[in-house]
């Protein structure tokens, strides 16, 4: 079990690194040493959510970071974090965060802790 | 008057102490402070070279400190990256250290990146613990 967990963690790290790229299930499955058909199931058993949902929350977390810390436009941020269209971005962001990207930006406060902790703790869970 | 004057020991779980030595000493370049077979456990600590005042205990989860069943749970959590084994080091040259460690086969999670506080990057030890090292901005160093 611990070897499987370690490999799934390696695959999840790869998603954290390449979150702006399309979800590459065959590549992630190779990292995790499972078949592409089993990847989503094993990932979910390990981390409690599907790879697709994990990636969506990671992208939204990175978008929240960019909304807080930069003055890039919402549309630029949408593409920077890997969403294919502003419509999908706004809908997903609102669904996960409960506010629009613009409202979030207005209300956000910058954080000052190392990025790994920001990434781990501000990836929205609901 | 403060009650405490320093942090001398911190602990992280490793799943194999020999493999941990290969990684923390052989690859990261830390030095061994203590490696003592106490019978009931192997007391193994490392530190940044020349800084024995702040040691990291590389502890193997297992009996009799905990039941074999609990140890198995701990091992699974370490491998999932959620046992909290975080270490953050400082470095004079983040990019150069990154290149050296990458050439030694270290598994990086993040390449050197400019942050408000300096340049840092992230990696994992062989077991799943998370490590960063930071080149702080000159005015903050």
Question: How does the SSE layout of this entry go?
Answer:
The complex is a heterodimer of chains A (126) and B (141).
Chain A: H1 2-17, H2 25-32, H3 36-47, H4 51-69, H5 74-80, H6 86-97, H7 101-107, H8 115-122
Chain B: E1 9-13, H1 17-27, E2 31-37, E3 42-47, E4 55-59, H2 68-80, E5 86-90, H3 94-103, E6 107-115, E7 118-124, E8 130-136
Structural write-up:
The complex is a heterodimer of chains A (126) and B (141). The longest helix of chain A is centred in the middle third of the chain and has 19 residues, at 51-69. Chain A is an all-alpha fold and 126 residues long. In chain A, 71% of the residues lie in helices and 0% in strands. Chain B has 141 residues and is of the alpha/beta class. Chain B has a single domain, classed as 2,3-Dihydroxybiphenyl 1,2-Dioxygenase, domain 1. Chain B has helices at residues 17-27, 68-80, 94-103, and strands at residues 9-13, 31-37, 42-47, 55-59, 86-90, 107-115, 118-124, 130-136. In chain B, the strands form 2 sheets. Chain B has a 4-stranded mixed β-sheet with strand order 1-4-3-2. In chain B, strands 5-8-7-6 form a 4-stranded mixed β-sheet. In chain B, a hairpin with a 7-residue loop joins strand 3 (42-47) and strand 4. Chain B is globular and about 45 Å long. The model of chain B has no long low-confidence stretch (mean pLDDT 94). The interface between A and B is medium-sized, with 18 and 25 residues.
């Amino acid at each position: 079990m611990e070897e499987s967990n370690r490999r799934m963690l390696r695959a999840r790290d790869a998603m954290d690194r390449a979150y702006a790229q399309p979800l590459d299930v065959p590549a992630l499955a190779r990292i995790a040493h499972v078949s592409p058909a089993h990847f989503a199931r094993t990932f979910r058993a390990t981390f409690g959510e599907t790879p697709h949902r994990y990636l969506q929350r990671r992208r939204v977390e990175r978008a929240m970071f960019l909304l807080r810390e930069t003055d890039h436009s919402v549309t630029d941020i949408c593409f920077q974090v890997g969403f294919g269209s502003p419509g999908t971005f706004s809908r997903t962001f609102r669904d996960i965060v409960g506010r629009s990207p613009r409202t979030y930006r207005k209300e956000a406060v910058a954080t000052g802790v190392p990025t790994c902790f920001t990434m781990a703790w501000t990836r929205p869970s609901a | 008057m403060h009650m405490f004057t320093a942090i001398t020991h911190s602990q992280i779980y490793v799943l194999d102490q020999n493999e941990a030595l290969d990684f923390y000493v052989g690859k990261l370049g830390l030095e061994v402070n203590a490696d003592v077979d106490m019978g009931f456990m192997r007391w193994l600590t490392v530190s940044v070279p020349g800084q024995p005042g702040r040691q990291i205990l590389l502890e193997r989860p297992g009996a009799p400190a905990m039941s074999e069943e609990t140890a198995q749970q701990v091992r699974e959590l370490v491998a999932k990256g959620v046992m909290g084994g975080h270490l953050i080091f400082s470095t004079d040259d983040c990019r150069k250290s990154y290149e050296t460690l990458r050439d030694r086969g270290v598994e990086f999670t993040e390449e050197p990146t400019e942050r408000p506080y300096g340049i840092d990057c992230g990696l994992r030890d062989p077991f799943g613990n998370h490590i960063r090292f930071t080149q702080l901005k000159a005015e903050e160093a």
